[in-house]
């Protein structure tokens, strides 16, 4: 039986950008204003702890597991040898790259918009097989430009494309594209929907929110009474709110005991979330949830490494020979997120990038999210997780 929930989600779940450069650059991390495993060889998305551990401890944050998987698939399309083997194992790619791309598209949900793009320097010779997969299977928008003499034009084109795909949610992806960049691959995921049952703005008020360290702050919090999926299991309380789309929802996960936060987070997995979801029943709920507005930008390299994919980031071991004759390795892998939750619904966007350089009544159940909680935007039929995040009340 399909669950229908409420929220406006604008999920540009990710801009997977692969910058293939022609000189060595020191890797660096990007950290955001607000900012999604230590995974013991457990492939994504089975285990989400690596994503959660990548988030700053004291900040509201989110990540897109699906976005990371799209990035890995695009890297996989150009990888060979050990690099291809690591990506295949870490992300459970059971087929060849073209089939993986088609599979990912089939896993997409109604209401989720996915777009891919590829920008190549006219001096870069792409291998025909890789280009064909990108254009035919990933259905990538293809742009050829002069990265040496007209880099600003290329950068503007990328930013404008991303802005269009995300309805303006991420207006700028690159501020300073490196002059030695030779190839950029981009994936975006965008979703926008209203809550099935909107919150009344008149019920929104400042209420006390207790942070992880026990300190208190006043936050604008929405409130409504409704019939919704609710459950208590394994020391968590769960509430699922439906979007206008029949197959999408936002699942809120609240620790019963705030002191169990770290223990529960270490066991967070897609399987566990689905178990919690199955234990839920329709109840009358008094729902109090804070309005959310957060942005995040951070380094993804540790996520890949924790999943067992090390060689893409090694100048000695990376193998992207199916992409180009130029010997390349990943110098940078990032993801940018923007999520807003208000009375009408939710807006969520993500951009993921990788830069390559050369070698060298009844009683109402209370669900009062007045302390730190996790949230998941998921497909209620397949269990696919598009976003996972935490809200801890930081400014």
Descriptive account of the structure:
The chain has 2 domains: 12-194 and 293-358, Antithrombin, Chain I, domain 2; 201-292 and 363-391, Alpha-1-antitrypsin, domain 1 (Roll), CATH 2.30.39.10. It starts with 11 loop residues before the first strand and ends with a strand. It is 22% helix and 36% strand. Helix 2 runs antiparallel to helix 4. The chain is built from 9 helices and 17 strands. The protein has 395 residues and is α+β, with helices and mostly antiparallel strands. Strands 3, 7, 8, 9, 10, 11, 15, 16 and 17 form a 9-stranded mixed β-sheet that branches. Strands 1, 2, 4, 5, 6, 12, 13 and 14 form an 8-stranded mixed β-sheet that branches. Residues 1-46 have low confidence and may be disordered.
CATH superfamily of the largest domain: Antithrombin, subunit I, domain 2
Radius of gyration: 21 Å
Count of DSSP strands: 17
For the record, what CATH class of the largest domain applies? Alpha Beta
Total DSSP helices: 9
Write the layout of secondary structure elements.
Elements (H helix, E strand, L loop, with lengths): L11 E2 L3 E5 L27 H6 L6 E3 L1 H13 L3 H10 L6 H11 L4 E10 L6 H10 L2 E6 L5 H15 L15 E14 L10 E6 L5 E18 L2 E7 L5 E8 L5 H6 L3 H9 L2 E10 L1 E8 L1 H6 L21 E14 L3 E14 L6 E4 L4 E7 L5 E7 L4
Parallel strand pairs: 1-14, 2-14, 4-5, 11-15
Antiparallel strand pairs: 2-6, 3-17, 4-6, 6-14, 7-8, 8-9, 8-11, 9-10, 10-16, 12-13, 13-14, 16-17
Search tags:
Antithrombin, Chain I, domain 2; 22% helix; 395 residues; 8-stranded mixed sheet; Alpha-1-antitrypsin, domain 1; alpha+beta; disordered N terminus; elongated
């Amino acid at each position: 039986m399909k669950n229908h929930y409420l929220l406006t989600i604008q999920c540009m779940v990710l801009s997977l950008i692969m910058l293939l450069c022609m000189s060595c650059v020191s890797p660096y991390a990007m950290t955001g204003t607000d900012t999604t495993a230590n995974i013991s060889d457990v492939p994504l998305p089975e285990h989400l702890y690596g994503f959660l551990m990548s988030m700053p401890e004291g900040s509201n944050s989110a990540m897109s597991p699906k976005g990371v998987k799209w990035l890995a698939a695009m890297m996989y399309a150009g990888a060979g040898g050990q690099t291809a083997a690591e990506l295949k194992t870490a992300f459970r790619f059971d087929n060849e790259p073209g089939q993986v791309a088609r599979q990912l598209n089939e896993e997409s949900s109604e209401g989720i918009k996915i777009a891919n793009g590829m920008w190549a320097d006219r001096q870069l010779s792409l291998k025909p097989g890789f280009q064909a997969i990108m254009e035919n299977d990933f259905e990538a928008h293809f742009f050829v430009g002069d990265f040496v003499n007209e880099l600003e034009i290329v950068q503007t084109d990328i930013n404008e494309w991303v802005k269009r795909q995300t309805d303006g949610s991420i207006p700028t992806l690159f501020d300073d594209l490196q002059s030695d960049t030779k190839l950029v691959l981009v994936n975006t995921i965008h979703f926008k929907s209203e809550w099935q049952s909107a919150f009344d703005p008149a019920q929104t008020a400042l209420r006390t929110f207790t942070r992880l360290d026990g300190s208190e702050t006043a936050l604008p919090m929405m409130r409504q009474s409704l019939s919704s999926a609710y459950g208590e299991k394994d020391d968590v309380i769960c509430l699922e709110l439906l979007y206008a789309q029949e197959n999408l929802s936002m699942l809120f996960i609240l620790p019963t005991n705030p002191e169990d936060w770290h223990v529960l987070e270490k066991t967070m997995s897609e399987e566990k979330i689905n178990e919690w979801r199955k234990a839920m029943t329709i109840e009358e709920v008094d729902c109090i949830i804070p309005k959310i507005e957060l942005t995040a930008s951070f380094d993804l390299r540790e996520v890949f490494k924790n999943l067992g994919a090390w060689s893409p980031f090694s100048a000695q071991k990376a193998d992207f020979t199916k992409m180009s004759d130029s010997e390349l390795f990943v110098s940078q892998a990032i993801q940018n997120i923007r999520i807003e939750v208000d009375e009408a619904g939710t807006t969520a966007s993500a951009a993921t990038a990788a830069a390559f350089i050369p070698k060298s009544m009844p009683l109402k159940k209370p669900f009062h999210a007045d302390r730190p909680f996790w949230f998941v935007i998921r497909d209620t039929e397949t269990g696919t997780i598009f976003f996972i995040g935490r809200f801890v009340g930081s400014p």
